[in-house]
Write a structure and sequence with these properties.
About 70% of the residues lie in helices and about 0% in strands. It is mainly α.
Length: about 170
């Protein structure tokens, strides 16, 4: 790695985003109708900075949590979290990062905003689908409890990520 600035930057960004996603999972901001965590904000922000390569720190984050490090919401960890009702949202981070990362390879602001919205949608849809599978919840109830309630907060996060990314070099 000595002398390879690109690789050094990649490692530093990866470590930083794993730490930020972990920190974001601990932060809950009161919001209506559900509290706003910053976990997905940092997942999307990683994609804006690292493009499609952000899938590596996001996957490592999930792997660290599955192996027992307390990186998930409120310091919980283990494979049980991924198999539990919220595991689909976490699993959705991987395709979401790829979608947003590819969108940020394009200079068009419309494509970037659409990519962030699609990425957020993927997280919500995979989470809702896993909620149905893991709990046996009726699809209509899962749409309401696992998707609709998160839309206002996710809209705020998409806007915040887009604005933050605009100000990054």
């Amino acid at each position: 790695m000595f002398g390879d600035l690109r690789r050094s930057r990649f490692v530093a960004y990866s470590a930083a985003f794993i730490a930020l996603i972990t920190l974001g999972s601990w932060i809950a901001i009161p919001f209506f109708p559900v509290p706003l965590t910053l976990q997905t904000l940092f997942v999307l922000l990683a994609a804006t900075v690292m493009k499609r390569h952000a899938v590596i720190p996001v996957t490592l984050y999930i792997l660290l949590g599955a192996l027992g490090l307390p990186v998930f919401h409120n310091g919980i960890a283990g494979i049980g979290v991924l198999l539990g009702p919220t595991g689909g949202y976490i699993a959705g981070f991987i395709p979401a990062t790829l979608i947003a990362g590819y969108a940020y390879d394009c200079p068009s602001s419309r494509v970037r905003i659409a990519g962030l919205a699609a990425a957020s949608g993927i997280i919500l849809v995979t989470g809702m689908a896993w909620l149905i599978c893991s709990t046996g919840m009726a699809p209509a109830a899962a749409v309401l409890a696992g998707l609709v309630v998160f839309l206002p907060g996710d809209t705020v996060k998409i806007y915040a990520v887009y604005r933050i990314a605009q100000n990054l070099p």
